[in-house]
Amino acid sequence: MSAVLDHGGHGHDHDDHHGHPHGWRRWVYATNHKDIGTLYLLFSLTMLMIGGVLALGIRAELFQPGLQLLNPELFNQLTTMHGIIMVFGAIMPAFVGVANWMLPLQIGASDMAFARMNNFSFWLMIPAALMLVGSFFMPGGAPAAGWTLYAPLTLQMGPSMDAGIFAMHILGASSIMGSINIIVTILNMRAPGMTLMKMPMFAWTWLITAYLLIAVMPVLAGAITMTLTDRHFGTSFFNPAGGGDPVMYQHIFWFFGHPEVYIMILPAFGIVSQIVPAFARKKLFGYASMVYATASIAILSFIVWAHHMFATGMPVTGQLFFMYATMLISVPTGVKVFNWIATMWKGSMTFESPMLWAVGFIFVFTMGGFTGLILSVAPIDIQLQDTYYVVAHFHYVLVAGSLFALFAAFYYWAPKWTGVMVPEWKGKLHFWWSLIAFNVTFFPMHFLGLAGMPRRYADYPMQFADFNALASVGAFFFGFAQVYFILVVLIPAMRGKGEPAPAKPWDGAEGLEWEVPSPAPFHTFETPPKLDATATRVIG
Amino acid sequence: MARNRPEASPVPATPCIDDHVQPTKSNEMIHVPGNRVSPTEPLALRVRKGLTAATLLGAASGAWAVSDLPGGPAVRQLDLHPAVTRIASAQQDLHHMMMYICIVIFVAVFGVMFYSIFAHRKSKGAKAADFHESTTVEIVWTIVPFLIVIGMALPATKVVVAQKDTTNADLTIKATGMQWKWGYEYIKGDGEGIQFVSTLDASQRALSDAGTPQGDNYLLKVDNALVVPVDKKIRIITTANDVIHSFMVPAFGIKQDAIPGFVRDTWFRAEKIGDYYGQCVELCGKEHAYMPIHVKVLSAEDYAKWVDDKHKQMQALADDPNKVWTQDELIARGEKVYTANCAACHQPNGKGGGAIKALDGSAKVLSDDAKVQIDVLLNGQNNTMPPWKQILSDTEIAAVITYTKNHWSNKTGQTVQPAEVLAARK
Amino acid sequence: MSSAVSKGHAPYYYVPGPSRHPAMAAVGLFFVILGAGQWVNGVSWAPFAFAFGLVWWLVVLKQWFSQAIGESEGGMYGERIDLSFRWSMAWFIFSEVMFFASFFGALYWARLHVLPSLGSLDNALLWPDFKAIWPTELAGATGSPAGTVEPFRTMDPWPLPTINTLLLLTSGVTLTVAHHALLQNLRGKCITFMWITVLLGVAFLGLQAFEYYEAYHHLNLKLSSGIYGSTFFMLTGFHGMHVFVGMLMLLFITLRLQKGHFTADNHFGFEGAAWYWHFVDVVWLGLYVVVYWT
Ligand code: HEA
Ligand code: HEA
Ligand code: CUA
Ligand SMILES: [Cu+2]
After folding, report:
1. What is the pLDDT of residues A317-333, one digit of tens each?
2. Membrane spanning segments where (chain B) (predicted)?
3. Which residue from B116, B159, B246 is facing A311, i.e. has the nearest CB?
4. Rounded CA gap, C278 and B405, in Å?
5. What is the Å distance from ligand 4's center to A261 Cα?
6. How far is C193 from chain A (nearest CA, A)?
7. Which pLDDT belongs to residue A14?
8. Does the N terminus or the C terminus of chain C have fewer Cβ atoms within 10 A?
9. Distance A303 CA to ligand 4 centre (A)
10. What pLDDT is attached to residue B64?
11. Quick one: CATH architecture of C1-77?
């Protein structure tokens, strides 16, 4: 028996493989995982540009002390919306996009488990994005309470705060539906013979990420709902006068927030775990321990949240507990790093662009991991919390982590997506340019933080001037690297310019996605493929 | 140029650490002394000079120079502030320990990776081995990091316990975060009863707006510094009036959020006389960058003298709430109160903006019943307007109300006397 | 291949074709959030935008579900899809559990941490006269240190909440009876018991409305009654909303049963709604114990 794909909607000719609609309907009415994946990726790229321009606004203002371009209110709006847009608009949807494209291909499924709901998850992001970006034009401007939306500052925000809250609700609903889709696809639609422990690492990391999402997105929804009712309906969740507690918001938020940061890194680990073996021409070292490490990181992520709150004044026991638990996370993360390096060890390596990005990821992400570990030591965090050291830490793990991994994924799978090879020099230039610019931007922030420069500051004492100037120069340099990426790498590839890609452009790559032609046809694996014992090849 | 001040005030070349605190070697290595004495032309300026686009980037500001601020940040400072308390120096030791361990691991791990990258590349004829598992090494590299982490956690535990121990303080001071100033109240110990508000010096805010920063203590200069005696255990109790703020003084190694409705505490024992600076480090609205902290550490004698002076000064200033004022006196006083406390939100022109209500033409201000406005001032309104009853005296509230009732287009002619405010407090 | 799509022969995995429903539903929700966000700020056109979006969204959902039901009844959904539905419903319910967990967590934190610390010795600096007593423990206690909360009385577990508990527990039983009837192909009995279940749900909602009326008018217990009122109404209110949704699900399942949908061995829609109902039931038991009783 084979999968039946109702291409044309009801009453259409089911034999016509090219019966899917063309023009805008193809995208708006899409139920095809590849099209929806493309939509997600383009959406997140757009949001990356918007979030990036906001970041450049921040950096331009901070280029030198004194207020030049913005007033402090607008500055806070930029910071807040930069954080929210990057986290919820750029990084998370980008990983969902890659998941949409690759998961069915990797596990030999005909599509995602719920194709229409899949499209719903995507289209829900549009109203949310419109509300978020539109909030700049509402009376009082965009929310300016930081991406963490701490109460009671949120209670002072204008109407855009409510728009933001509802937008986040919708984004949460989208994430939950998307995660359920991914979980069900992975659990229920693997081709016969692909046991869980033979699944590609990317599928594993996404499975675990999806669980994190359905566990914590509703908690965020709870937190911002309380904010909403405190703002408008007279409740006192965060109002001490009525017996509430502003710090309660932080507990609820970070119960979501910490797992959230792993939501943004676990799929990146998955991507890197696909790429490193491919270019080392050697199987992933310690597959099983990779799976267990990912699961441990996810489980531990639920008991470390208050490391964001050391300065709120917790009792000693609380500080110690959260400090120990946080430090423990470096153990499973270390296992991953060591496994990647052991995979490279005695391999037969080449360094095409995907591999460069992956190695760059390991190198720079680890620096961010180490600064995280340093922050987790409560007495040190007392010095560093809410300074630029934290900003440096999380951009090392988010930009050089999540974003670099996404670029790695792009270069690795672009042949499958577009059908053409991206010329190597283009990807290499993009890599080195980004790597250098990234470090010029964010490395000096460690010094600023150690010297005590607080974050979310529109203006700063003059002693901090030099490193800020350097960071600003780096930020624009980094921004231009992404302009280059869009204009020189992405658009030509999307237009199909370049050498046609073979089904399997990387000789060391393994996995079912390389068993279908490039670009991947509209429908793949309509009949569940028969797999060989390794579950990486189709037989017969 | 006036702003170019190469002759900037002399700065001690050594970090402010006395014998209680062991200066760490690395500290000295990192703080290149040359950095600390000579005023330097900031990079932004040099870059901007070189850019043709200079005009775009706020050509308004001229040349400036800056030197290190003792007790505050140093130019191009690379590490934590020189420690002035035992806790701060313990934090620094921890930080250095962590950093060195991490660097060693980093070099080791990536040494292996780069060796592999160079040695095991296809272009060098490397053939891929086919191992992909080894329970032994996997156990080793789980256990070893685990042990390292324990090794890091142990010394940290001691510091956590020490820095949380706020008992047996010699002096207890309550620091109240407000949008956007700090209120200090000496509640126990020498100086009990002293109470004042500390705000960013008004000139600084103007410099910031104009994009013409200047001075080594730019954005750190306050009207009234917090004053404490040296070598005494000071317990700082934090709380807030409106939103969360955070009280940080890097040289003391303290940072404590100030949470409305709750009190939290931290402590320090400054071991060196001098001026120390910090800033508010929890996003608290638009003027978040403009509520610095300046702590003056004095010798025991100087402190006693300061307490004495302060008490006298406070007595002289205290207003009798039953005194009857003329309208002009109240308006003149009210203008000062308005500029210092209200203008940041309601704007000097009284028009407000965003969630901030306009006062000019406001029904509540124009109301014939003075109680309406008194109530708003005392108790706040809508989460946005903070309650002022703890911060302003009856006279000040009466003065500022009279001022707003008779300024801009508001011409009510009404006068509100302190006694009315006092009555409304009940 | 098209031959596989005949009634009774479900495909290996049915993947629906292009559909306008998802994007249209998103348009509806755009107006919902636009309207809601402005409505709470008192913008005059906002309620209309909200209502328009809601109606739009419901119409789209109706079309969407009709199509899905058509596919289901048309035999497109084989065993594998059935399993997909089961997984998805289970994990959806899990996410709902986490949503409630945030509010239960808030109650726990407020009562066991915030209250004592507001009344602690340190905090006497700010709230000198505050006694840390949870409102259920002493008549007249408001749990609010500033004294800004009007005095109120708490809802006694007897009689209303207890009756409601019994209603919900009974509805769980009648639902199970209906399910067994369906399994034995006793459609008439199944439909009868489904109606009883739905009516029990309606009765619960009615009583809860009455309870709120009592709270507001006789106990002076309001949403604005400090942290107690906040957690009380938000927990029971969100629960009530879930009862409402669950009741609607059961209602539609009953109507579908009357149309002849579902068979003894193919009725995931029925089971999904039943799971949801049991989940709502369990949440209520939690509420009954920690909100009303203790
Ligand atoms: C992708 C996102 C991501 C990731 C992966 C991480 C990873 C980690 N983070 Fe980070 N973090 C953020 C995103 C992320 N973080 C963000 C966004 C914030 C700020 C939020 C805000 O306030 O706005 C933040 C803030 C933050 C804080 C609070 C700082 C403050 O506000 O004061 C802390 C404190 O403990 C912390 C710790 C850690 C730790 C211990 C890890 C660990 O997981 C890192 C583990 C990795 C390694 C340690 C390196 C590899 C390991 C080895 C090579 C093995 C050998 C090593 C040893 C045994 C030492 N993070
Ligand atoms: C999630 C991912 C993510 C990503 C990818 C980034 C990317 C960047 N971020 Fe940030 N950032 C956050 C998440 C992220 N950030 C978060 C969560 C916060 C905390 C917010 C808070 O405090 O509440 C934060 C805060 C933050 C701050 C601190 C602000 C403050 O405290 O006031 C700064 C300051 O420099 C900064 C800078 C940057 C820069 C320069 C980039 C660059 O990497 C961006 C590069 C991208 C582009 C430039 C876009 C691509 C190109 C174009 C669109 C073409 C046009 C470009 C040009 C004309 C050059 N970010
Ligand atoms: Cu006060 Cu920031
Ligand atoms: Cu965290």
Report:
1. 999 999 999 999 999 99
2. 97-118, 139-157
3. B246
4. 62
5. 7
6. 32
7. 40
8. C
9. 10
10. 60
11. Orthogonal Bundle (1.10)
